[in-house]
Amino acid sequence: MERFLDGEFESTLAPSNVEVVALLESEADETALYDRRFAELFERYGRQARSFERIGAMAPTLAARSLSMAFAGTDEAHDREFAAAASRYRTAMLTTLNGELASSGRFNTFDYTRGRDLWEKVPPFDYDVPTARWALSNTLWSAVALAAWLAAASIAAVVSVSSMRLD
Predict the structure, then answer these.
(1) Average confidence (pLDDT) per 10 residues, the chain, 167 residues
(2) CA–CA dist 54, 63 (Å, integer)
(3) What is the pTM of this model?
(4) In whole angstroms, how far apart are CA 73 and each of 38, 97, 155, 162?
(5) Tell me, what DSSP letter sits at residue 107?
(6) With the C-alpha atoms ordered 8, 5, 41, 63, is the resulting torsion angle positive or negative?
(7) Environment class of residue 128 by beta-carbon count within 10 Å: exposed (0-12), middle (13-18) or buried (19+)?
(8) In the chain, N or C: fewer CB atoms in 10 Å?
(9) How many CB atoms lie within 10 A of CB 22?
(10) What is the pLDDT of residue 3?
(11) What is the Cα–Cα distance from 23 to 140, expressed in whole angstroms?
């Protein structure tokens, strides 16, 4: 079955019902708008996260915070990945449901009902959490900044201890 949300209709399944055509076009427009607006929003979030991460070079607690959030899966990059997966799932689900409606051949869609068999065609939402390696690659700046702070603190400790006099 072709993707209805992309505006492509297989000729044998092209709906003849005006309500279904309007629904499919509306879904396609809404999905495009949703994708565009969330891309803009996540781009802004990404810029903010990168700025915050770079400040970690001056404050080790901020670098540690960025790393901690990344490994806990609560940072901006994980949020963006989850939202993208949810959007793909939404599109697939609506494609299945709208495809069923379009192929039903009904002219009155407002009272059209289906049973459990239709919902069983929609696969469950299955999200694979990104790996720790992926999280680290998205916060490499914080890891380097924290390592630099650790090295500086270690050097300062060695210098301080070596300059101590025991009388």
Answers:
(1) 46 59 83 91 91 87 93 95 93 85 70 82 93 95 94 95 82
(2) 8
(3) 0.74
(4) 19, 32, 32, 41
(5) S
(6) negative
(7) exposed
(8) C
(9) 12
(10) 46
(11) 45
Residue 107's pLDDT is 64
**Spatial separation of the C-alpha atoms in residues 28 and 19, rounded to whole Å:** 14
SS3 of residue 91 by DSSP: helix
pLDDT score recorded for residue 36 = 93
Q: What share of the chain is helix, strand, coil (3-state, %, to 5)?
A: 70, 0, 30
Tokens of 72: 């806990």
Residues in the chain: 167
What pLDDT does residue 99 have?
Answer: 81
As given in the structure block, the two tokens for residue 110 are 């407002």
Q: Where are the beta strands (DSSP E) in the chain?
A: none
SS3 (DSSP) at 82: helix
